[in-house]
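The methods section describes the discrete structure representation at length, but only in general terms. What matters is that the chain and its backbone geometry are given together, residue for residue. For illustration, here is how one protein appears when written out as sequence plus structure tokens:
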Amino acid sequence: MIPLDTFMAHSADGRLVPVVPGGQNISLTFSNRTEYVERAMDYRLHEMDSQVAAVREGMSTIIPVPLLSLLTAQQLEQLVCGLPEVSVEMLKKLVRYRDITESHQLIGWFWQSLEEFTNEERVLFLRFVSGRSRLPSNPADIAQKFQIIKVDRPVNGLPTAQTCFFLFRLPPYTSQAILAERLRYSIHNCPSIDMDNYMLTHNTDPVDSSDNED
């Protein structure tokens, strides 16, 4: 809410601040309303200038500043953070099979299940097997292959993963529907290492470094 009595406004962190020097002592009137709006907008547009400058200076040590102007905000986000959409086709390009072949019916069921998942579910799957929520925009930037290994666990059991090795253990299933149901259960209910948010929380919360084993 914008106060309507003086030249004050709410900052990004909720504090009331003057939009001009001594603004707390300047009454807001009908005659100076336009100036107030201009001053308030200017304050909000530039209140993060020092923080943005610090980020820009840090980025300039990695990327030449003139090159940043060639990218949109969305393009820069994708280069730094990866793609928000988890592509099944990209995963297929990264996969390496162990003790099973691409033509095996179980593999066909697995890929069909991922394709039928929502993107939110594919993000959960990616976190389940790798600890990450996004894939790099360039497949060449992925150092590890996505490994699928067939295991002789009980039929229709829960799949497991080792995030450190980007490895997914796939037990035998009697149908694609059961595979999809067991996979959904695992990605929604089994804890995983969250590499994307680890640096935000490791100072305050204990981190479970174990693999995703049922």
About this structure: The beta strands are 8-10, 16-18, 95-98, 146-150, 160-162, 167-170. The longest strand covers residues 146-150. The chain is about 40% helix and 10% strand.
